[in-house]
Amino acid sequence: MTTLDEAVALARDESGLAVVSTLRADNTIQASLVNAGVLTHPENGRPVLAFVTYGRVKLANLRARPALAATFRSGWQWATVEGNAELAGPDDRQSWLADADQLRLLLRSVFTAAGGTHDNWDAYDATMAEQRRTAVLVAPTRVYSNG
After folding, report:
1. What average pLDDT does the structure give for the chain?
2. Does residue 1 register a pLDDT over 70?
3. How far apart are CA 82 and CA 107, in angstroms?
4. Residue 131's pLDDT is what?
5. Smallest Cα–Cα separation from 133: which of 99, 92, 98, 82?
6. Is the pLDDT of residue 62 over 70?
7. Most CB atoms within 10 A, among 16, 41, 94, 125?
8. Which long-range contacts does 97-105 make (Cβ < 8 Å, 24+ apart)?
9. Which of 54, 60, 61, 71 is nearest to 27 (CA)?
């Protein structure tokens, strides 16, 4: 059995890159590349897959149909994490996200969990706010691999 940590570890040398697949309204798959990592959920303390996104397609899909799959790879080894997205952003408020400052800190936490670093956090925060970035947290319901 593959764990969440083992799945994400596959992409450690690839900047945490994962292919995230969501379901469109017409039941076709929409896939995109994200940087993802493991984060402790701010409300319940459980480990979740986390990434940051913006834009209309992926967020619209996840708002309407929160199921997703994220696949990590290293060479020919791969692992997939499935679950339902919980969105936390300026347009997707959560009861455990009290204010804009908590969102700012959450976006930073997701970024660093995915292996990101930044020399100017104020500039990072400004970009996240301007682009209305949203944190996507996924409690795994299934994790599997070819290994």
Report:
1. 94
2. no
3. 21
4. 94
5. 92
6. yes
7. 16
8. 97/42, 100/129, 102/42, 103/135, 104/128, 104/129
9. 61
- Output the six-digit token pair for 108: 């930073």
Residue 34 amino acid letter: V
Question: Quick check: 121 pLDDT over 90?
Answer: yes
Distance CA(87)–CA(92), nearest Å, equals: 6
Rounded distance between C-alpha atoms, residue 81 and residue 145, angstroms: 9
Quote the tokens at residue 30: 């929409």
| Cα–Cα nearest to 5, from 38, 34, 35 | 38
pLDDT digits (tens, 9 = 90+) for 16-29: 899 999 999 999 99
Task: Give the C-alpha separation, 31 to 20, whole Å.
Answer: 5
Alpha helices in the chain (DSSP H): 4-9, 56-64, 100-113, 121-130
Q: Which two tokens stand for residue 115?
A: 């292996």
Amino acid identity of residue 135, one-letter, is A
Place of tokens 């290994």: 147
